[in-house]
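Handout, page 2. Input:
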Amino acid sequence: MSAPNEAKASSAGHGHDDHPSHCENCKAELQGHYCHACGQSVHNPVRNLGHALEEVFESFWHLDGRVFRTLRDLLSPGKVAREYLAGRRVRYIPPLRLFVIVSVMTFFVAQFAIHVESNTHFDIDTAQSTTVRLGNVKKQMRDADSVAEVEELRARMVGELRTAAAAAPVARNAIEASIVSVHRQADKRIELLKAEQGLDAEQVATQRAEGERLAGAPRPGSIDAAKNLAEVERLRDERIAALQAQRAQATPQSRESSDYAGLIRQANLEAGCRIAQLQVAHAGRSEGAGLRAPDRQRYGEVECDNSEGPLSFNGRPWDPKTNPLKVEWWPQFANDWLNRQVGKGEVNFQRATKDPALYIHALIGAIPSALFLMVPIFALLLKIAYVGSGRGYLEHLVVALYSHIYLCLALLAMFVLMLLGDAIAPHWAGVVWLKGLAIGLLWTWMPIYLLIMEKRVYANGWPLTLLRYLLIGSAYFFLLSLATVALMTAAIVRM
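Output:
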């Protein structure tokens, strides 16, 4: 047919309501809203904005009532899965499509609902340039080898915190909570040392008094006690010179077994941290309220508690050249790639340690991928557990998909409650209690929902269903944890 004739036929085929009488795709006569020959809709999205928007939503949701019916029936454990498996599929959204949409929506909302304070290390510069640096209290207490050392740590930390509390009344509640934590950790460590070293009450009291005395005086030769840059450089150079002299006089065997390079590196790191602390304190005095957080970061690392680095192999800190991680049966290029990833991971894990929000974002990013990977594994576990049920793997996969869809919807409801609670709490404190109650009920209902769903879909007795449910659940959550940790680690390495 020529172009003019086609245009004429097309024009003639449209009624007053702008609906064609023949399909614009295959020219078959239309008898409804869809062509019986090719399935194309009678509505043309390029001629009507409403139809265009409808087509966009329909591509994802098929907004013909199925989305609302599916979500409504999901509230009844096992109903959608049973109906779908029984062949009554047209009334529901296909499970894979719904799972993808719901999981994406859930963890998109999670990015806004979950927040973590970026600075978990207490760090306040007072008007007297006193810097409170608790760091990892548990680690410092655990490393203390005597009651005197524990008591010295306790006295120093509590003294600095009380000074900060006087200078920053707005943070008094948080500081008092930190003081309670310091006392608790110190008491636990003293009790452990008392049992390990067989100390009596008099010996403990003597060592405690000695620790308090030491806390009142600066540690001799400590870089942390240096008052200015010149003193930091002098103490650093003295310590490094002593280590270099020891290394020069040591036997080859002793030099091999002792990590002199690591000790020298530690002295340089401590000096760098102390110099940064002094610079931040000076900037705080000179700039006052004008000191910006990005400027503080540019002055250098001020937290020295974890300066030795989190990674070690063969009893020594990891180093890509002197102490690399090697897999013997891997080729050299693969080991080189592995150590590049380890290097990235070390840097990013240190970043995440100082900003736990990075951990949370990595976790939120890892969970959807982990769930997507675990759906076919969950179906396989169902197939194994119900091996004599006569159901094929794809039928178990439908059950797995609808189970995960409900879990995502429950999580989405929790995240929405968090957002609403955060928005309403400043105006009505009671919403915090209601939010906590609702989230607690959702957490309680989730495993009960899955148990009832399994019972209704597979129609076994309660004892056998409960046994299979516990075995499948234990294996599933173990594998899910492994997958989440692996994907979260990979996400942090790639940051």
